[in-house]
Design a protein that fits this description.
Distance between the termini: 95 Å
Number of strands: 19
Shape: elongated
Oligomer: single chain
Number of helices: 15
Helix content: 25-40%
Structural class: alpha/beta
Radius of gyration: 26 Å
Strand content: 15-25%
Length: 466
C-alpha cells in the first residue's frame, strides 16, 4: 500500500519549471531550477505554457523539433550556464525549462553492434530503435590503477608495419600523429577491418558529413560494421555534442570491457575534441592559455584518455588520431596527448606524396609496450630491422647527391641493396589484410637477408669494416 501511496504522491508533486534568462553565443543561462554540472535540461520553445505537455522522461525520447536539449556546464549564484546539445533555432528569452532528471544516458550492450549512433547515443542509421541495450550514465569511473591488468598480449592489426615495428598491446593507448590529408583515417579503417579484437567502437568527431558514409560503406564495409559500433558527430554539430560523442564512444567501449570483452576504441580525431572543448571553455569565461586553449582542454584530454586501457578482465585498446597543426608535432594538443599516450605512430607527408601508404615513419614511431608483449626472438628481429633502416637513413643525404661510397658502412650497404624489399614490406594496400604471424615471417626473412648481406661484405673485405 505504501508503494502505491508514494507513487501517487510523486505523480501529484508540482513540476518545477525554470526559464531562459539569456542566450548569447554558445551559452544559454537558465534560472529557477536546482541543477548540477552535467545535468541535462529540456527547453520548450515559444511559451512557458507548453511546459505542462512535456514528457518528463529520460533524454533518450527527445523530440528535437519541439525542444532544445542543453547540458549544464557551470553554475553561479542560482544561474545555470548551459551549452546546447541540439539546435537552438527558435530559442528565446523566457522559454520554459524542465529538468530531465539527471545527466546524459548512453546505451550499452550487444544490441549496439552494427549500429550507427549520433553524438548523444541515438540511432541514425534508419534501422529502427535500439534493442537489447541498457542505459547508463555517460561518465564512468576510471579503472583503479592497482586493479588494471598489465599489458602482456599483442593486438594484431593486420597492418604489417604496425604489427612488427610498432607492435600494439591489448589495453594500450596509441596516437596516430599527422597533418591533414596524410592518411590517418585510412589507416584507422585498415585497423578496424583487420584487428583481432572482438568489438570495434569508432568515434568520428568533427568529421565532414560527406566522409561519414564513405567511411562506413567503403572503408569499414559490411563485415567490419557487423562487429563495430560507430558514433558520429559531424563538424556542424554543437561543440558540446562533439565533445560528448568522444565520451559516448568511450563509455560504450568501457561497458564491453566490463563484460570481459577485448575491444578497440578508434577516435578520429582527438584534436577536434580539444578544439570543441576550447569553444566551450572560452564561451563560459575560461581564460585562454597556450594558443588559445583554456586549461580545461588539457584536463579533459587526460580524463578521456585514462578511461581506456585494461580492466580486471577485458580491455579497451585506444587508437586516437591527432591532427598536428601545420605539421608541427610539438603543438600543444599533440604534445599533451603524446605525454599521456603509450606510444605514437608518425605519418610522414613526404612518404605520402611518393605514394608510400600507409605513410608511417617507422623510425620516428614507437610503442612503449612492444617489449612487454613480444618474445625475445620477435624483439630481436624488430630491433635489427630498425637498425638497418636507420643506417640507410643516416646516409640518405649522400645518396641523394650521389656521394655515397659503398663499403664504408656494411649495414647501410645491405639496407640500400634490399631497399625495394623493405619498402614493399612497409607498403600495404587499403584492402590487403596480412596476418600477424605472416607479417613476422616476412620480417624475419628480410632481416636474415640483411644480415647475410652484411656478413658477405665483411668476408669480401677481409673481415674489416671501416
Amino acid at each position: 500500500m505504501s508503494a502505491r501511496w508514494n507513487a501517487v504522491l510523486e505523480a501529484s508533486a508540482p513540476i518545477r519549471v525554470g526559464s531562459v534568462q539569456r542566450a548569447v553565443g554558445l551559452s544559454v543561462d537558465v534560472v529557477g531550477l536546482e541543477c548540477a554540472v552535467g545535468d541535462v535540461l529540456r527547453i520548450a520553445h515559444a511559451t512557458s505554457a507548453r511546459a505542462a505537455s512535456f514528457p518528463a522522461d529520460s533524454v533518450v525520447a527527445t523530440d528535437p523539433t519541439a525542444h532544445t536539449l542543453v547540458e549544464v556546464v557551470a553554475v553561479d549564484q542560482g544561474v545555470a550556464r548551459c551549452m546546447p546539445l541540439t539546435g537552438t533555432a527558435g530559442l528565446s528569452q523566457g522559454d520554459a525549462v524542465l529538468h530531465t532528471g539527471g545527466p546524459l544516458l548512453v546505451p550499452s550492450g550487444p544490441g549496439l553492434l552494427g549500429r550507427v549512433l549520433d553524438g548523444l547515443g541515438r540511432p541514425i542509421d534508419g534501422k529502427g530503435p535500439l534493442t537489447r541495450v541498457t542505459y547508463m550514465p555517460l561518465m564512468n569511473e576510471v579503472p583503479h590503477p592497482l586493479t588494471r591488468a598489465r599489458i602482456s598480449r599483442p593486438l594484431a592489426t593486420s597492418v604489417r608495419v604496425l604489427d612488427t615495428l610498432i607492435t600494439l598491446g591489448r589495453g594500450q593507448r596509441m596516437g596516430l600523429f599527422a597533418g591533414s590529408g596524410v592518411g590517418k583515417s585510412t589507416l584507422l579503417s585498415m585497423i578496424a577491418r583487420g584487428t583481432d579484437a572482438a568489438v570495434s567502437v569508432v568515434a568520428l568527431v568533427g568529421e565532414r558529413g560527406r566522409e561519414v558514409r564513405e567511411f562506413i560503406d567503403d572503408d569499414l564495409g559490411p563485415e567490419g560494421l557487423a562487429r563495430s559500433v560507430v558514433v558520429v558527430a559531424t563538424s556542424d554539430q554543437p561543440a558540446l555534442v562533439r565533445v560528448r560523442s568522444a565520451f559516448v564512444a568511450t563509455a560504450i567501449a568501457s561497458q564491453f570491457r566490463s563484460s570481459g570483452t577485448d575491444s578497440v576504441l578508434m577516435m578520429d580525431s582527438l584534436t577536434r575534441v580539444a578544439m570543441a572543448q576550447r569553444e566551450i571553455g572560452l564561451s563560459v569565461g575560461e581564460p585562454p592559455a597556450t594558443r588559445g586553449y583554456p586549461p580545461s582542454t588539457f584536463a579533459i584530454l587526460a580524463q578521456l584518455l585514462e578511461q581506456a586501457g585494461n580492466g580486471e578482465h577485458g580491455s579497451v585498446t585506444g587508437i586516437y588520431t591527432v591532427l598536428v597543426d601545420g605539421d608541427d608535432h610539438n603543438e600543444p594538443v599533440a604534445d599533451a596527448a603524446r605525454s599521456i599516450l603509450d606510444g605514437h605512430v608518425v605519418l610522414d607527408r613526404s612518404l605520402a606524396v611518393k605514394g608510400h601508404f600507409p605513410a608511417v615513419d617507422a623510425l620516428a614511431s614507437i610503442s612503449r609496450v612492444a617489449s612487454k608483449v613480444l618474445g625475445d626472438d620477435y624483439r630481436h628481429a624488430a630491433l635489427q630491422l630498425r637498425r638497418f633502416m636507420a643506417a640507410r637513413a643516416e646516409v640518405q643525404d649522400l645518396l641523394d647527391v650521389g656521394a655515397y661510397v659503398q663499403g664504408v658502412n656494411p649495414e647501410a650497404d645491405a639496407a640500400i641493396a634490399l631497399h625495394s624489399e623493405i619498402s614493399a614490406f612497409l607498403r600495404q594496400s587499403v584492402t590487403q589484410v596480412t596476418g600477424f604471424d605472416e607479417a613476422w615471417v616476412t620480417a624475419r626473412q628480410i632481416v636474415a637477408s640483411l644480415e647475410n648481406h652484411t656478413h658477405k661484405d665483411n668476408v669480401d673485405s677481409g673481415g674489416i669494416s671501416v
